[in-house]
Design brief:
Blueprint: H1 2-13, H2 22-28, H3 37-49, H4 53-62, H5 66-69, H6 78-89, H7 97-104, H8 110-119, H9 123-131, H10 136-145, H11 149-157, H12 162-171, H13 176-212, H14 222-235, H15 241-276, H16 278-297, H17 304-327, H18 332-357, H19 359-368, H20 371-381, H21 391-403, H22 409-413, H23 419-426, H24 433-448, H25 452-465, H26 472-512, H27 518-534, H28 542-558, H29 560-587, H30 597-613, H31 619-663, H32 668-685, H33 690-737, H34 747-760, H35 767-817, H36 834-848, H37 855-872, H38 881-894, H39 902-915, H40 921-936
Helix pairs in contact: 2-4, 3-4, 6-8, 7-9, 8-9, 8-10, 9-11, 10-11, 10-12, 11-13, 12-13, 13-14, 13-15, 14-15, 16-17, 16-18, 17-18, 19-20, 19-21, 19-25, 20-21, 20-23, 24-25, 24-26, 25-26, 26-27, 26-28, 27-28, 29-31, 30-31, 31-32, 31-33, 32-33, 33-34, 33-35, 35-36, 35-40, 36-39, 37-38, 37-39, ...
């Protein structure tokens, strides 16, 4: 009792939405308000977990707001999704369109958005849902099957993959626009891909050509090809960074090769310019040396500065002379002149050198007035006559001149040993003030120039000679100059001391270094030695000099193998240069008379390159080889000039031929072909001398341009005429196309059109001409078929008249056999002419004659039928083969004199058919259907 009561109590107080009966639970949902949170949770529980479908459906019906169903979407089955789609798509109980659009804009579920895009009640709602879809398969589905065209087009516009576009082309049968748009997009992509492939191929081709350019053999067209490749690359769209970098690297390599070659060519041109102006440059050197010699001889007195300038000028011009003569062979007269000038300059310099060596003794002799010493020094110096003397020599001459009167003639004839004593006794006068002033001025000039050695020597000489014999002013000036000498010595020692230490450290370090090559070591060693020598004896000590020499010897010891290798390399270069000279010399006299000057120029240029490449060489033999090489090149250049001169003469003849051809009045096309032959001959000849080549080419090209301009003008005129003819043909075709024959008399218009076509001539070859020819032939064929049809109709009509007449004659023939003879009258129609009348009369006469056998007429009737079949090209049976042969032989015999027209032959057959009789009625009835079949054929 208690259990039953508890069950009843439980049932009584259990909520209806939890009732065991699904119908009661379903009805209970109507009492639940989704706006109340507790009741909305109950509805959600029913939607998610109730086992009865009608209960879940009833609970979903109460949920009329999509926002309340969205949280349940991931936990519920398809029923919730379907209800949500219904609400969002505008179904029963759907909210406003604006709220639905705002909600759709926040959705991320692709399946739900696809359903809304497919079932939405508004186009904008569908477009909003479509905009939220990112899955391409869903977009393809919408583009193929959506019921709204705008949605299909919007979906198709967002499909970009190759596979998706191909699916659209295959599946979008509902919308041709979508299909066509996808097909066009694919076509554009294919075109873009082909264009990209073509661009890639073009870039790869340009890149390969640019990479190949610096590796190929040099040609004159390489720079222009480089610029052309660069322009073609720049015209293409920008490539990716890697490809662009590859091309830039290849371009830089090609540019370097071209720049190097142009530099070499510039050097060669400079070398050629120097070679061409060799005599001028050598003459300038000789002129400079002559001016230096004349300038020295034009002075009243000379000093160390004058001889230093002369020596510097001689050294400078000598270096220029050696540089030029090492490269080229100088003319013999200039060589002789240079040797004479060198000797003329060497004599003063030797005298000056002897003067320098004797300067100290000379100064002492002047101070001591030692006449004997002065005379000896004068003989040792041996100053050339005509050369201005120094101040010391002038003083010497004056001293000797002053001492001369005191020496008697007898003493002069005595032994030379006695002369100095006599002169000493006579030369006790005071020092020449002018000579002293000159020497003091020279001392000051040497100090200003920083020349310590000659200044110290001259100061010491002046000091020793003038001690106690100068006035106060000169003594003060000499003392000041002495102070300057001491100051200069101290300064040079002060400056040279650290420099010597630096040079000593540098050469010691250089002797110990192992991280540099022998070539660099040798170069630095020579530089250090040169800098050491420039210091002279400033701050020089025995220890530093010995240390420097020891380090230098150590470096020389380390460079023994290098210097030996360099010596061998120079000897090798000398041997290669000698071999090169022998090859060039062997070429002279063995070159063919028709040798190409361009080939000879290449030999010359390559010989120069080889000559420059094999350097250095030993100085002495190298100078001789330079002279020999220059002579060989001169001989080769003479051969080139001779061949180029011959080519210039031949090209001049071609120019004259081209100009004569340009002035002719013959047809332009054959003249252009002849001009091409002349151009081929021009290319085969080679190059004339540079300036002559340019002049001849300008004239030849001008003449050829005139010829080709005439050809082009003739072609343009011909094209204009062809264009006019094409237009006339076009008008004729249009006119004939718009005309349709109605009767056989209209055939005259077709004949006129054919005559006009014959007068216009054949259509030219080409796309337009071929198209017009096909159209013309088609129109002609249709018009001829139409005329044939009209002719067939007319012929059939005429046959009906002939058939009636022949039928009457056949009836009359049958009546005549029975004895009833009658005549058949010829109808008065255009189908019958005079021949027909004669045939008709003959047939009537045959009938009036005595009755005869009809077998011959019957056979003749069959032959005439076969004749008509041959004319109409109709098939015949095997029983008519013998008749065919008979008819053909008869036709051949009949047409031996003149070929008959088809119409004339038909008229003759019909007239013969009319004149053939009398006929057997059965035979006629047998043949008549066959005749009808022929005319219907």
């Amino acid at each position: 009792m208690t259990g039953l009561l508890s069950r009843l109590t439980g049932r009584l107080f259990t909520p209806r939405w939890q009732h065991a009966n699904p119908a009661i639970r379903s009805a209970a949902t109507d009492q639940l308000d989704p706006d109340i949170p507790e009741q909305r949770k109950i509805l959600e529980t029913l939607i998610l977990s109730d086992s009865a479908l009608e209960v879940r459906h009833a609970a979903l019906t109460r949920m009329q707001t999509p926002e309340r169903l969205l949280p349940l979407l991931d936990r519920a089955d398809g029923l919730v999704r379907e209800r949500l789609v219904e609400l969002l798509s505008g179904g029963q109980d759907a909210p406003s369109l604006l709220s639905r659009e705002q909600l759709v804009e926040r959705l991320d579920d692709s399946e739900l958005l696809s359903a809304v895009a497919a079932r939405g009640d508004n186009q904008q709602l569908r477009l909003t849902a479509l905009a939220r879809i990112d899955d391409e398969d869903a977009l393809i589905q919408q583009a193929c099957h959506n019921t709204i065209a705008a949605v299909r087009h919007a979906a198709a516009a967002r499909i970009t993959s190759q596979t998706g576009l191909e699916r659209l082309v295959r599946d979008a049968k509902r919308d041709r626009h979508v299909q066509r748009q996808a097909r066009d997009t694919l076509a554009r992509r294919r075109a873009d891909a082909q264009e990209a492939d073509a661009l890639t191929v073009s870039r790869d081709n340009l890149l390969r050509q640019m990479e190949k350019l610096p590796r190929q053999a040099w040609e004159d067209s390489v720079p222009s090809r480089y610029r052309s490749l660069l322009r073609e690359w720049e015209r293409l769209p920008a490539a990716e960074h890697t490809t662009q970098q590859y091309f830039e690297d290849a371009r830089q390599q090609a540019y370097k090769v071209i720049s190097d070659h142009e530099s070499r060519e510039q050097a060669i041109r400079e070398h050629e310019r120097l070679s061409a102006n060799l005599s001028t440059h050598l003459t300038e050197i000789l002129t400079a040396l002559t001016h230096a010699r004349d300038d020295l001889q034009s002075r009243e007195r000379v000093n160390d500065h004058d001889f230093a300038s002369l020596q510097a000028q001689r050294r400078l011009q000598g270096e220029r002379w050696r540089e030029l003569t090492d490269q080229f062979s100088a003319p013999s007269e200039l060589l002789e002149q240079h040797q004479r000038l060198q000797q003329q300059l060497q004599n003063p310099l030797d005298a000056w050198h002897r003067h320098q060596l004797a300067q100290v003794e000379l100064d002492a002799a002047l101070v001591d007035n030692d006449i004997e010493q002065m005379m000896r020094l004068e003989r040792e110096i041996a100053w050339p006559s005509g050369l201005p003397m120094t101040a010391s020599l002038i003083a010497l001459q004056e001293a000797l001149a002053n001492a001369a009167p005191a020496i008697s003639d007898e003493a002069q004839r005595e032994d030379d040993a006695e002369q100095p004593s006599a002169i000493d006794e006579a030369a006790s006068s005071a020092l020449d003030a002018a000579a002293l002033d000159a020497e003091i001025d020279m001392l000051e000039a040497q100090l200003d120039a920083g020349k310590l050695k000659p200044a110290s020597r001259l100061h010491r000489s002046l000091r020793d000679r003038s001690e106690g014999k100068l006035d106060a002013a000169r003594q003060t000036r000499l003392r000041q100059l002495g102070a300057r000498v001491a100051e200069l010595r101290d300064w040079q020692n002060f400056v040279a001391a650290p420099k010597r230490e630096q040079l000593l450290d540098a050469i010691t370090t250089l002797a110990e270094r192992d991280d540099i090559g022998d070539e660099q070591r040798d170069r630095q060693h020579q530089l250090l030695i040169q800098q050491w020598r420039e210091l002279a004896d400033a701050a020089a000590t025995r220890e530093t000099s010995q240390a420097f020499r020891t380090a230098s010897d150590a470096i020389k010891q380390r460079l023994t193998e290098y210097r030996e290798a360099r010596k061998q390399a120079r000897e090798h270069n000398l041997a290669m240069r000698q071999s090169l000279c022998e090859q060039l010399e062997s070429l002279d006299g063995h070159a063919m008379d028709d040798a190409d000057p361009d080939f000879l120029r290449q030999i010359r240029d390559r010989a120069r390159e080889e000559w420059r490449r094999h350097t250095p060489v030993p100085a002495g033999p190298g100078r001789q080889l330079s002279h020999r090489f220059g002579e060989a090149l001169t001989a080769l250049q003479s051969l080139i000039d001779n061949r180029a001169g011959q080519i210039a003469a031949a090209k001049q003849a071609l120019v004259e031929a081209a100009e004569a051809l340009a002035d002719e009045n013959s047809p332009a096309r054959p003249r252009a072909e002849q001009a091409k032959t002349l151009q081929t001959r021009w290319r085969e000849l080679g190059r004339a001398p540079k300036g002559e080549e340019q002049r001849l080419w300008t004239a030849f090209r001008a003449a050829c341009d005139r010829i080709f301009a005439a050809r082009d003008q003739d072609r343009e005129d011909r094209d204009s005429r062809e264009q006019v003819r094409l237009d006339q043909w076009q008008a004729l075709i249009e006119r004939l196309d718009s005309w349709e024959p109605e009767t056989l008399e209209d055939a005259a218009q077709l004949d006129d059109a054919l005559k006009e076509a014959d007068s216009l001539g054949a259509l030219p070859r080409g796309k337009r001409g071929d198209g017009m020819r096909r159209r013309w032939n088609g129109i002609l064929k249709r018009r001829e078929q139409r005329l044939d049809e009209l002719h067939a109709v007319q012929l059939l009509e005429e046959w009906q008249q002939w058939r009636d007449l022949l039928e009457q004659h056949a009836v009359a023939d049958a009546s005549a056999i029975r004895g009833d003879i009658s005549e058949v009258e010829l109808p008065d129609t255009s189908a019958f002419d005079d021949n027909s009348r004669q045939a008709n009369a003959a047939r009537n006469m045959m009938r009036q004659a005595e009755p005869s056998n009809c077998s011959a007429a019957n056979e003749r009737l069959a032959e005439l039928r076969v004749h008509l079949a041959i004319l109409f090209e109709a098939p015949l049976g095997t029983e008519d083969e013998s008749r065919r042969l008979t008819v053909q032989v008869a036709r051949i015999n009949q047409q031996l004199g003149e070929r008959m027209e088809r119409e004339e032959e038909l008229d003759e057959v019909l007239d013969a058919l009319l004149a053939n009789g009398p006929l057997d009625w059965d035979a006629w009835q047998t043949e008549l259907p066959r005749f009808d079949a022929l005319f219907n054929h």
